[in-house]
Amino acid sequence: VKINEYRLHLDIGFQRPTFRGRLEIVGENDAETLTLNAVDLSILAARSGGRDLEVRPDPSTQSLGLSGLPRGPVVVELEYEGRIGDGILIGLYRSAQAPDSIITTQCESTGARRILPCLDRPDRKATFDVEVTVDEDREVIFNTPAIESRLEGGRKRVRFARTPQMATYLLYLGIGTFEVVRERTDGGRVAAWMPPGSGPDAAYSVDLASRLLAEYERYYGLPYPLPKLDLVSIQDFAPGAMENWGAITFRDLYLGIDGSASTSLRRTIAVVLAHEIAHQWFGNLVTMRWWDDIWLNESFASFVSYKVIERLRVLPAVWSDFLLQEVAGAFLGDALAVAHPIRQPVEQPDDIDQVFDEISYGKGAAVLRMLEAFLGEETFRRGVQTYLERFQYGNARSEDLWAALEGSAGQPVAEMIRRWVERPGHPVLTVHRGSDGVHLEQRRFSLHGDHPRQYWPVPLLGSAGGRLLRMLMAGPEVTLNVGAEAELNLNSDALGFYRVLYDDTSYDRLRDRLPERSEPERWAVIRDLFAFLLSGDVELDRYLRFVERLESETGYLVVNELTTQLATLRPLLTEEADFVQAATRFYRRQLERVGLARRSGEDEVLGALRERVVGGLASLDPDFAEELAGRYGEYDALDPDVRGPLLVAYARRRGAAAYPELRERFRRSTGIEALRALRALGASDNPVLVRQTLAMGPSGECPVSSFPFALIEAVQRPAGRAAVWEWLPSNVEFLRKGLMGSSFLPLVFERLIPLLGLDRAAEVRTFFSSQPPAGAERGVRKGLEFLGIFLALQARAQQ
Ligand SMILES: [Zn+2]
User: Fold this and answer.
1) Residue 480 contacts residue 440 (beta carbons within 8 Å)
2) Measuring CA to CA, how many Å separate 24 from each of 8, 130, 204?
3) Which residues neighbour ligand 1 (ion) by CB within 5 Å?
4) Of 17, 170, 243, 686, which cross-links 276 as Cys (Cβ 3.0–4.6 Å)?
């Protein structure tokens, strides 16, 4: 069965719980029964060529069968009714939006079938001719521009330009009242749709989006395929953003910037915009054939977004953010037993949502970067251009990109990359110095410390004994013919996706000569040491000596990484005096450097570090937390980078006295300010207060898309963990339903379980192993693995 065109009319009333659809499907039928995907749609009439069709819904396969159709060209007419979701974030749903609400959609991966009966697969591209009838005072956004709007009996009917051939998961519809901010310099292609009153906040995003669009046109060598690009702000939204073709949606936090935005949020917004705009070609114009290649979509967008930001010179140290945001987490996730290959077979809708993770995004992006470094920047870009031209308005598989790259490079690409893409895990190279040279042995690195015997084709780039090292380590072992005392650098500029475990001598020397290494190399050393601490390959003592060595480090990449590591270790090692001392000293030294307030003309990345350093120190040092809490009265005048940590310190130091005030602050704030207040509400050391915060989710006071931030904050401390554990069993279903169909759902459990289980491992294991919430199974398995790793580290540290 081939569908060429969907002609859809939707009638949506704001005050009604349901919507009406009238659909004409134009296609070629070659079967007894035409099977379409549909969820929660009631078919009122089905006809073709004047004849009624028999309709058989099958909810278990999310489909309905239509029989009685002739073979050959057909036009199927359907009338149906669907539900406007309330408290769910998939399909067509209602979102809170100050001062009112909007109706919006999220179709990736399988939400389109909740809006219209369709062939809901990425390779079944068709054109969409859409008309929508709404209350006359509302505006409507679709993938293409409106071409006609007329009033009919007190309602408004808007008709949109026909779309190009496109996949159903990229459909978008938004209905509501907006303030529109348009970029004029590029012919008005880019516009932001903001809640009334917050239009000015979109200035930064609209300007940057327009510049990014032009830069991508240069990079890809193809014009932007649609006449307009809308950016839509949504309050209740599960992902950070979604690349709907021509109508990108953003969690409100990631579109508008006002004076309260922190430095790191500003940086994140630039990267998120660049990522979603990258998809307008890579993903939307050329689409993966099936979800097992979602990695290519996401890895490529994750990689190229940093590339294009670098070309525009809008963010200093952008590749540091690439390593921190995309690669560091991928290295950890990829070292679990549950790790999947970058390219992962998927069948069921629930499985699809669970592969939008750090491996599909970050590890894939790191491997593409390794490939680009190997082929050269221009060769890589030419291959990408060929691929896009060859498959535009169609679908492709990973192999098609390799073939295009081989064409431009004139050398085999598939061969080299296949093992990295199709096998889970990554290598650790262990260094042994012998009388005949330096032995390297590779195994698959495991955070459990067992390191199975497996190997990869490792492109070794670095130096040994003062000589350049450039070789492919094709087998499990290799001996470098250098002196036993040779100086080693086995991962130049951290370009390779592998770890190096040095011997004691090398580590001692490395520690002394660390400042001589490049910043990405210092980062790779401390990144690997942290993993080796978790796996038991190095002791806490050695790790802490490196932390000490890096106290006066000035590199953004290294300091940022260390703040993440120390924050991860803090809940596990609060009883270890050595850890607390070393971490406190590190934060204090860094605070002396970055200060509590922005200085004029300072490097932008200092702001991003300030937030992390202030928060880290306040979590360990009660005197500093007290000092911070004492400045609550000056809140609005303070540097936005210290506001988040200040609210948490205030909540913890003032307890019940501060709670009503923080709750009120949450109620009257939006965006980042609301999120800061919410985290503070979860941060209390008083279980009674945490319980009150937890009630805000199910009661609807806090949108379900933000609520997990309070949960994740709460489990950082014993009192919060007790409250969450008491609350969770009867509220798993609330979380599951609210976050269903999004990658946020497994992530929440992945984050909660390892900390929740610190004080009650057996109960947590039993509870989650016996009844993992549907759609979060992978997150639960990862969470349980991390719990085991954390407990093992605690036990070793206590010996
Ligand atoms: Zn993406």
Assistant:
1) yes
2) 6, 11, 41
3) 298, 301
4) 243
Task: From 449, 420, 626, 635, select the one nearest 532 (Cα to Cα).
Answer: 449
Q: Are 709 and 675 in contact (CB under 8 A)?
A: yes
**One-letter amino acid for residue 460 of the chain:** L
Distance 663 CA to ligand 1 centre (A): 34
Nearest Cα residue to 235 out of 190, 181, 195, 176: 195
H or E stretch at 311: helix 294-312
Query: 165 CA to middle of ligand 1, Å?
Result: 20
CA–CA separation, 249 and 272 (whole Å): 11
**pLDDT per residue over 122-179, tens digit each?**
999 999 999 999 999 999 999 999 999 999 988 999 999 999 999 999 999 999 999 9
- Torsion sign over Cα 726, 731, 732, 735: negative
Gap between the Cα atoms of 250 and 236, Å rounded: 10
Quote the pTM value: 0.93
What single string gives the DSSP state of each residue in 671-717?
HHHHHHHHHHHH--S-HHHHHHHHHTTTTTSS-TTTHHHHHHHHTTS
Highest mean pLDDT range out of 502-516, 608-622, 731-745?
608-622
**CB-neighbour burial class of residue 464 (10 A; exposed 0-12, middle 13-18, buried 19+):** buried
Per-residue pLDDT at 531 exceeds 90: yes
Strands 499-501 and 18-29: unpaired
Q: Which of 131, 183, 276, 673 is catalytic?
A: 276
405 CA to centre of ligand 1 in angstroms: 22
CB-based contacts of 269: which residues, under 8 Å, 6+ apart? 204, 205, 254, 255, 257, 261
Q: What is the pLDDT of residue 561?
A: 98
Gap between the Cα atoms of 34 and 3, Å rounded: 11
- 760 residue type, one letter: R
What's the 363 CA to ligand 1 centre distance in angstroms? 14
In 3D space, the residue among 253, 269, 280 whose CA is nearest the CA of residue 204 turns out to be 269
Give yes or no for a contact between 303 and 310, defined as CB atoms under 8 angstroms apart: no
Three-state DSSP class for residue 77: strand
CA 204/CA 501 separation, integer angstroms: 44
Task: Name, in order, each residue with C-beta under 8 angstroms of 356's C-beta and a sequence gap of 6 or more.
Answer: 294, 298, 743
Taking the centre of ligand 1 as the mean of its atom positions, its distance from the CA of residue 159, in whole angstroms, is: 29
81 forms bridges with which residues in the sheet? Answer: 20, 42
